[in-house]
Amino acid sequence: QVQLVESGGGLVQAGGSLRLSCANSRSSFNVYVHHMAWFRQAPGKEREFVSAISWSGGRIDYADSVKGRFTISRDNAKMTVYLQMDSLNPDDTAVYYCAADQRPKITAIQASDRDEYEYWGQGTQVTVSS
User: Residue 6 and residue 110: Cα distance in Å, rounded?
Assistant: First the structure.
């Protein structure tokens, strides 16, 4: 069983930075999560892909809207994935959700598809003021 807990959201001015964390707080020793990802959902919009990372970190994908500004990483010993968000702008305002799945994602399309992820966190609010 997997339980994801996000933290690190908050209010920041445009141009600022935030670092989100997502901890897999409950998992059997022999049940590992292969792919972890971040999605976000702004008011009135559908949940959209932000970034994803494989178990080894050998496959990393980003949405075009965050490339060059956001960096995803993971610490498997701590069963935690991070999202460093720099140069934030008001369009980044959303609830950010952590997602995880035991199956590897071979393509960018798979990695960015929310239906490919079985486990989800409750979300953390990120608000960027202008």
Answer: 22
Can you list the alpha helix ranges (DSSP code H) found in the chain?
108-111
Q: How many CB atoms lie within 10 A of CB 1?
A: 8
Measure the CA–CA gap between 71 and 68, rounded to whole angstroms. Answer: 8
Q: What span, in angstroms and rounded, lies between the C-alpha atoms of 117 and 38?
A: 11
Q: Taking Cα atoms as reference points, which of 43, 39, 46 lies closest to residue 66?
A: 39
CA dihedral 56, 87, 94, 35 (to 10 degrees): 0
How many other CB atoms sit within 10 Å of the CB of residue 116?
16
- Per-residue pLDDT tens, the chain, 130 aa: give them: 788 999 999 999 999 999 999 998 766 544 577 899 999 999 999 999 999 999 889 999 999 999 999 999 999 888 899 999 999 999 999 999 999 998 999 999 999 999 999 999 999 999 999 9
Start-to-end CA span in the chain (Å): 40
DSSP 98-121: EEEESS---SHHHHT-GGG--EE-
